[in-house]
What does this fold into?
Amino acid sequence: MTTRSRPDRGVRRTVLALGAAGLAVIAAGAVLDALWLLGIGVWGVIAAMLIELVYRP
It folds into this structure.
């Protein structure tokens, strides 16, 4: 089992926060029927996935 260093935890926390915020904005956009909120939320989730894909320790 490997231990994660401090920068890995920071990136992981950032990815989780960005993904959760994106999902929350998507849910708010769906409830309010606002496409611009859905768009912002989707781009947030996409950014979180790209960070996770690019940053591989």
